[in-house]
Design goal:
This is Subtilisin-like protease SBT1.7. One of its GO terms (molecular function) is serine-type endopeptidase activity. It comes from Hibiscus syriacus. There is one protein chain. By secondary structure, this protein is an alpha/beta fold. It folds into two domains: 320 residues, Rossmann fold; 129 residues, 3-Layer(bba) Sandwich (Glucose Oxidase, domain 1). The chain contains ten helices and 23 strands. Helix 3 links the parallel strand 7 and strand 8. Helix 5 packs across helix 6. The mean pLDDT is 94.
């Protein structure tokens, strides 16, 4: 489901309520995490019975270039086919003051200044494709869409109404400076078609919404990322490729970006896994995708974050980028029954009526509750140190791999936290056998109570499988 807005208690979240009934009927539900990144705590659709999907890039790009009058050539992206602009330089316009015309908002451009020229538009406030329409309507012949700090170096290609090149913040600042300082700034826009094998990829999209989960902080979200930037797919001819009313073009395909593009990929993978394992529950399928996700890109580096170029963390990428091949044989899964989800809901401080809004069973009594909602048998961990320094969770793994298999545990975490797991090895004699382990997290004394979030992992592995769970650690006020 490529929709959602904000986050609310689950009994007020219509998507969470509908998805609960779907999950009860054996239907896997994948939802967009939202496009409000890189702002922290901007997630939607965080219910634990939903797969919450962020967006990453592909190893494909659509390069374009802005060649300035000073002969410097800057790289960007564009879907423009390159016909009709020519490669002779034209005037370049950018307002010297911080006016609304820099954002290319409707009605903000003066046709006398813009006619026959390329306009630099700052990204933000209105839709990217709308900026191109504003430039075109004012008589401009092209646009350079320049990022600001919010979108950093992330480049998104759009089906603009006129020749346009999108550039990152750093290059955008250099082009803005040239336009402001040169007496007669000019530019020629050039278009480079499609390139493959782009490195590094995948990269977490800057727009992909971020954790932490504000509805249930003990459940780590998002779950995973999937392909969500510059996705090629079928398009209705009822509307032009920009979606704008004034776009009269017709096309059967379009390129779009957003977590609305990534979450259907994950539904497709769930269908693939369900075809291979028809008896698996939605929670088992979800576990398979989460515990086999990868966190290394095609340069063997940790996955980067497009927002600022730093390494990403689980609040941006969840467990990592989905891996269809590995998810078909995860070895072990963290399964969750309907009753366990009800126990989870009963431990959130909701009234019985609130729980019934979601579960719709007449005879709910909430006689069973978790001491802590993080006790749900989730494939990842979100550890909150606050009034307690010790957090202990027991998880249950189901063997979906070979009989007679042994798994050993490896933990990874920050120096500020002690992590111990008992037992250290699990032996599964049969397929379908379930085994439990208990993990204890201890916040070491002397840790600052408002320390920044930290991350780690717990991996159950053998020669054939690595069953990996991401872990986040947050500190609120710590008491002795």
């Amino acid at each position: 489901m490529s929709l959602g807005g904000g986050s609310a208690p689950y009994y007020r979240d219509t998507i969470a309520i509908g998805a609960f009934t779907a999950m009860e009927k054996g239907i896997f539900v994948s939802c967009s995490a939202g496009n409000s990144g890189p702002t922290k705590a901007s997630l939607a659709n965080v219910a634990p019975w939903i797969m919450t999907v962020g967006a990453g890039t592909l190893d494909r790009d659509f390069p374009a270039y802005a060649v300035l009058g000073n002969k410097v050539r800057y790289n960007g992206v564009s879907l423009y086919s390159g016909q009709g602009m020519g490669n002779k330089p034209v005037g370049l316009v950018y307002s010297k003051d911080k006016s609304s015309s820099n954002l290319c908002l409707t009605g903000s451009l003066d046709p006398a200044l813009v006619r026959g020229k390329v306009v630099i538009c700052d990204r933000g406030t209105n839709a990217r494709v709308e900026k191109g329409a504003v430039v075109r309507d004012a008589g401009g012949v092209g646009m350079i869409l320049a990022n600001t700090a919010v979108s950093g170096e992330e480049l998104v290609a759009d089906s603009h109404l006129l020749p346009a090149v999108a550039v990152g913040r750093k290059l955008g600042d250099l082009i803005r400076e040239y336009a402001r300082s040169d007496r007669k700034p000019t530019v020629a826009l050039e278009f480079g078609g499609t390139v493959l094998d782009v490195k590094p990829s995948p990269v977490v999209a800057a727009f992909s919404s971020r954790g932490p989960n504000m509805v249930t902080p003990q459940i780590l979200k998002p779950d995973v990322i999937g392909p969500g930037v510059n996705i090629l797919a079928a398009w209705s001819e009822a509307i032009g490729p920009t979606g704008l009313a004034k776009d009269t073009r017709k096309t059967m395909f379009n390129i779009m970006s957003g977590t609305s593009m990534s979450c259907p990929h994950i539904s497709g993978l769930a269908a693939l896994i369900k075809a291979a394992h028809p008896e698996w529950s939605p929670s088992a399928i979800k576990s398979a995708l989460i515990t086999t996700a990868y966190t290394q890109d095609n340069t063997n580096s940790s996955l980067h974050d497009a927002a600022d170029g730093s390494f990403s963390n689980p609040w941006a990428r969840g467990a990592g980028h989905v891996d269809p091949q590995k998810a078909l044989s995860p070895g072990l899964v963290y399964d969750i029954s309907i009753d366990e989800y009800i126990t989870f809901l009963c431990s959130l401080g909701y009234t019985i009526d609130h729980v019934k809004t979601i579960v719709k069973h007449p005879n709910i009594t909430c006689s069973r509750k978790f001491n802590d909602p993080g006790e749900l048998n989730y494939p990842s961990f979100s550890v909150l140190f606050g009034d307690k320094r010790v957090v202990r969770y027991t998880r249950e793994l189901t063997n979906v791999g070979a009989a007679r298999s042994v798994y050993k545990v490896t933990v990874n975490g920050p120096s500020t936290v002690g992590i111990s797991v008992r037992p250290r090895a699990l032996t599964f004699r049969t397929v379908g056998e379930k085994k439990r382990y208990t993990v204890t997290f201890v916040a070491k004394r002397g840790t600052s109570p408002m320390a920044k979030p930290e991350f780690g992992s717990i991996v159950w592995g053998n020669a054939r499988n690595q069953v990996k769970s991401p872990v986040s650690f947050s500190w609120t006020e710590l008491s002795d």
